[in-house]
Amino acid sequence: MANLKNSVAKNVKTKVAGQTQDDVVYCHIFDAILEQRLPPATKLNEEALAEIFSVSRTIIRRALLRLSMEQVVSIRPNRGAMVSAPTKDEAKQIIKAREVMELAITELAVEHATPAKIEECRRLVEKENEAFDNGDYGKGLRLSGEFHIKLAEMANNTPLLAFQRSLVSQTSLLIAQYETGNHANCSLDEHSNLLDAIESGDSEQALDLMSEHINHIRSKLNLDSAAASNDLHVVFSDLIKGR
Prior knowledge:
GntR family transcriptional regulator, 3 strands, 12 helices, WH_DNA-bd_sf, TF_FadR/GntR_C, transcription regulation, DNA-binding transcription factor activity, about 240 residues
């Protein structure tokens, strides 16, 4: 977790104002997952995290519990916490839930959009574009996730926003596990075009663009072929069965 420790050292002062210690820990771990600095199946040692954040293990446990409720951290009895590692079946369910959620958010965003909210989203897209242009894939991915969370805020529906935060971070885990090919980003124009449709009040076009966007995310994930395994019995299962 060296990358997380370096990130905390640089950014903790900007996170503290107006937040509890629980919030500080939660935000840093959430961002680290979005940026894929904490990949799936990473063990989240309470003692190490308590040292990194200079807080008690009780605070660490509360933050991890909050993340587990969003299904991006798994807490296992007697084994501690780890970053979730969704199976392919779970991944398909997450993407389907994301599709349903995004379409509902888009419809409400068209209804509740304001010039200020649109401009805030456009600034995020600019920062996302800049991050990818600079080769900072992790930051670009986090900003892409923040864009979708901002859309949920624009929708003005608190339960949808809570669900969206969980689904965005879970999607980042899926990309870390199952994305095929290189990390070339292809969503920048899609985000801008979507904002144009929302700003113009064209609900039908906005929904079509969001549907295409989610399908694009889905198409980059390898969720159909068999996963590789480090279990020798699984790798040589055909040979064993043929005996």
